[in-house]
Amino acid sequence: MPSDKAVAEPFGNRAPFAEPSWYNALASPYYKESHRRVRDHVRRYVDEHIAPNIQEWEENGHVPDEARLRYARAGLAFPELPGEYRGGVPLPGGVSIEEWDTFHSLVLGYELSKIWAAGVSAGLSGGTTIGVPPVIHHGTDEQKKRWLPGIFTGQTSFCLGCTEPTGGSDLANLRTTAVKTEDGAYYVVNGHKKWITGALRATHMTTAVRTGEQGTGGISVLVIPLDLAGISRRKIKNTGWNAGDSTWVTLENVKVPADHLIGQENSGFRYIMTNFNRERFLLAVLMNGQARICLEDAWAYAMDRQTFGKPLMAHQSIRHKLVAMARYVESHWAWLEQIAYHAQRADGGRMGAELASRIALAKVHGGRLLELANREAQQVFGGAAYQRGGVGARVEQIGRDLRVNIVGGGSEEIISDLAVRQEIGAAVGRGAKL
Which residues form the Acyl-CoA oxidase/dehydrogenase middle domain (predicted)? Predict the structure, then answer.
């Protein structure tokens, strides 16, 4: 899919490496006019409607309901939602559903990383973004008609209930149980879910529960209305992500209608794991974008700040820090593009099993990249990146938020090991002698 322009008109921040190279420097075979329209539309919306409020919303600990609804109605959330459930809400940039591809999603994810407080981004749509895909891909037509249209009217919002107090990445050993009543009409659910993004204000929780034997073969997915009797919720106070509504959910003898089961009973592990591909890819894109924010702000500060009679940028040690960030953001972005290119052509898209290991490692690499970029930017700023507000505000906020992006969606230890085991299996399948 060749680009219709060799090099696009410069866009965004002109500082070196502050934006993906196709924005203002190099030609790319991956992007065309529709991708630029998405980029322009989302950047304009974020600059006008979100950026002026980021600090206030994060300090207040929540995103106003009207801002969340306006965001959804603007088409920035849930591009994978089928047209019949969108209520006429267009995709960003006027791109048709038929035309929307993986690179549009890549551009959208990158542009949304400009919401530099990750809790605000999560507060706008994060819970639904990860909670609704199992319904889209494995729900019945009746379930989709019941729940999906309300996303764009404010009547429905989702969260994903997987993590528990006793474990997050170890989904196979979850302890929340769902026991069917004798008449088969309900599941009675008991357990706890922890660090559930968006659960404080969500109407439904797409929930991993144990309906069968221990291990992966006994897990199912239920969509649980959060107004049912026996459910209590309380906000968890974390280091960052204050506006992300991180929530502890307790379920005590909650009677969930049996027709809220997604897909087949005891098949839920697969549904959740394929959903992780999408979540991890989006997290990797987010971390690349936030690393570029650190680079962008550090670069500007180094050009402006005078020390010992000359700009910080005149010191070789400072230039070395900036170029180290540049090496990592550019190479990581190229990997994300390679993954997107394959997903664009594979039958399973980003859900494909052959991409799971690479997406996992791209997410791990994104975390390492963001940690390095944030640390080096803090070194450039000095004390200015340790105070809330001022020239170092974005770097300081990213420093408080970054751990949840690194641990969320699977810790690097767990998903790195997963990637190795999957690649060994794939290599043996190709005839490798290991």
Answer: 159-254
